[in-house]
Specification:
Layout lengths: L6 E3 L3 H10 L6 H39 L6 H33 L17 H9 L1 H33 L6 H41 L2 E2 H12 L2 H23 L4 E4 L4 E6 L8 E7 L1 H12 L4 E3 L1 H10 L11 H16 L6 E3 L14 H20 L20
Parallel strand pairs: 3-6, 6-7
Antiparallel strand pairs: 1-2, 3-4, 4-5
Helix pairs in contact: 2-3, 2-6, 5-6, 10-12
Length: 408
């Protein structure tokens, strides 16, 4: 068997969820049974108390019938006796059912699909495999173990009662009843403890079997990942399409730019400034082939091209599309915009121009433009948060508190 076909991978959460929904996981029936029996034992004292009160009332009615048969009929007494059984035993039965449902739900839930008749279960070969499989051997061993444990508990309790039973004929009736009740309680208590321990062992075996049977191959895990997270090829195609749409929008914004700074062929950054809206914004940027497209788009729409290598590199590294330029580049960009306006006044609104005197980048500007970009983003977020914060009304306090003389 190839590596891709070996079931070595742990089942994914989606796989386990699907198996639980379909009821494909094994559960421990012993756990539900023993927990229900334990709940019943815990409620027996209450049942006995309610039964004792009901029996006392019924015996009183029987005595009344015996003394005066005409006052109450035997049918009425028997009907009252039967009706008293329901409130006496109903709480215990309800508690047992609820406990069994809770335990079953904790193990994966109760599934109606298991109660349906499946054709594959009628296959003799499959039935023989189930009868001779390891699960059947475990069920047989578990039955023998439960029988042995219950027999051992019964033998231990009875041996403790043997001295009392040998002299039971000379004991008062109340003492004999108390002894029998104590022995029965001990038998139930130790039996329940032993049964719960066996049920825990069975639950561990069932959980290990479920983990083994639900293992998946590496190919199945990959297919499951594709279903939940999406096919990587499809996601890549969608991402490429989104990037293409974003690039097209960016190219459309180049036509509205005021200037495109170039480097001269490797980098291109398009800027747009709207008076009264703050600092100029980067509407497009790119390197390599994308920079060539930006230059071509700018030339087609008669957007001025200005060659300033340091400033173009600084803007490309420090700004993202749609972001305002950082503060330390205000002066350099303002000189470029003034230069472009002067060119337009002279009628030179197209073509490639150079800034007189070399670079417009100021001396002492940050060399780590990416760090400066992060700082600019942080300041932008802080400014937006400050604008969203509610305004605090203040009262002006005069700073000159020097007393003055009253004028006449």
């Amino acid at each position: 068997m190839s590596d891709g076909q070996e079931r070595t991978q742990k089942a994914t959460p989606q796989r386990m969820k699907e198996l639980r929904r379909k009821g494909g996981l094994s559960t421990s029936q012993d756990m539900s049974a023993w927990v229900g029996l334990g709940v019943a034992v815990l409620m027996i004292p209450g049942v006995i108390s309610r039964g004792k009160a009901a029996a006392t009332d019924q015996l009183a009615h029987v005595r009344d019938v015996a003394l005066d048969p005409a006052s109450l009929s035997v049918t009425t007494v028997l009907g009252d006796a039967l009706r008293s059984v329901v409130p006496t035993l109903a709480p215990m039965f309800v508690a047992v059912v609820v406990a069994a449902i809770v335990v079953a739900a904790a193990q994966g839930g109760i599934h109606v699909r298991k109660l349906k008749l499946h054709v594959e279960h009628l296959n003799p070969t499959s039935a023989a495999k189930r009868l001779l499989g390891p699960q059947s051997w475990w069920q047989g061993a578990k039955t023998l173990l439960k029988t042995g444990v219950v027999a051992l508990v019964l033998l231990t309790v009875v041996q403790g009662l043997v001295p009392v039973l040998t002299v039971s004929g000379r004991l008062p009736l109340q003492q004999l009843v108390d002894t029998a009740a104590g022995g029965t309680t001990s038998l139930l208590r130790f039996g329940i403890v032993a049964g719960v321990l066996l049920a825990v062992a069975d639950l561990v075996v069932v959980m290990r079997r479920n983990r083994k049977q639900t293992r998946m191959t590496l190919l199945e895990v990959k297919e499951e990942h594709k279903k939940t997270e999406g096919d990587p090829q499809v996601k890549g195609a969608i991402r490429a399409k989104q990037m293409a749409m974003s690039r097209n929008r960016m190219m459309a914004a180049v036509a509205q730019a005021d200037v495109v700074l170039v480097n001269p062929t490797h980098v291109a950054v398009a800027l747009r400034y709207e008076p009264g809206s703050g600092a100029p914004k980067v509407v497009a940027k790119g390197a390599g082939a994308l920079a060539a497209r930006i230059r071509a788009e700018a030339s087609e729409h008669r957007v001025p091209l200005v060659e300033d290598i340091p400033l173009a590199r600084a803007l490309h590294a420090a700004c993202e599309v749609g972001q305002e330029i950082p503060e330390y580049l205000f002066t350099a960009v303002a000189r470029v915009l003034a230069f472009v306006m002067a060119l337009r006044r002279r009628g030179a609104s197209t073509g490639q121009h150079r800034v007189p005197g070399g670079s417009a980048l100021p001396t002492g500007a940050p060399t780590d433009h990416r760090a400066a970009a992060r700082e600019a983003k942080r300041r932008t977020r802080a400014a937006r948060a400050a604008r969203r914060a509610p305004a605090v009304r203040t009262t002006a306090v005069p700073t000159d508190l020097t007393p003055t003389e009253d004028r006449p």
